[in-house]
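Box S1 | Example of a co-folding query
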Amino acid sequence: MTARRLVGFTIGLLSSLCLAGCWGTTSVFSPASPNARATVQLFNFVFAIEAVVFVIVEGALIYAVVHFSRKRGGGLPKQTEGNLTLEIIWTVIPSILLAAIFFVSLGTLSQVTSAPPQSSLTGAPLQIKVIGHQWFWEFDYPDLKIVTANELVVPVGTLVNANVQSMDVIHSYWVPDLGGKIDAIPGITNQIHFQADRTGTFTGQCAEFCGADHAQMRMTVVVKTADEYAAWVKGQQAPLPQFSGDGASGELLFMGMPCIGCHTIATTKAQGTIGPNLTHFASRGIFAGGVLVNNTDNLSLWLADPQAVKPGNLMPNFSLGPGAIKILDAFLQSLK
Ligand code: CUA
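Box S1 (continued) | Returned holo structure for dinuclear copper ion
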């Protein structure tokens, strides 16, 4: 590799790392749930041991290289073959360390998979279904009759039990700040839970290669206060508004297009299940598998050519003209 190529490669690598860092607060080091915190504590414990071992071993190595090397003009240094005491020491100490890591990991495993104590909970646990699709996440609240996509809304301090499934291939649900990672496997229901202990927006990402748009299968978890959450639930359960003007024309167009074969809008004839449920589309902060902020400009871009925005996604390009896009925008953005 020439120097110029090496510099180019390094700049490319650093800028992609920076971009990755700029996108939301996806980090296992800012835990906001007891099980996420347990994972970081285990990491810190193992890292501390590794750091001490690294310093001692590298120190001994450098000392040996400097102290025992052949001196200028000198003869062959003293040759040593085997040292029983040293060998016992460097077998016993790592064994003790590995045993400690093993038992501490077992403790963390049970902490991560068992629910937090009832005493730390506010209210009854929230049951949700998380369904992986190529390429977006669907969130179903069966008890509340709410279905949404890309953005999971939960109340703070409440235990959330998620049944994780897949509609097509294997995905992996992962919101680093809120705890572990779990595969979404077709035909199998896996379970994961979390209990957010502060409000905010946490980002997640599909963590199992699942096809062309694996990297663009993102999500956010929006943690609200109890009151904000109650208001959100009320909004999601509200009937559709009366559409007027461009919104009404957009509704007419939408219901006459193949859109209804893929998307559901509750109480209408749109009952497709391939694409995201759009019932309260305008209440969400993101769309298109979490890669676009939900606003009229981005929606226009998306409707004009979904493949240009997110190549490989399953939404066809309907070659819509500006007029059609304008009224569809008005319709979708009124689905509050
Ligand atoms: Cu879904 Cu990767």
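The mean pLDDT is 88. The radius of gyration is 27 Å.
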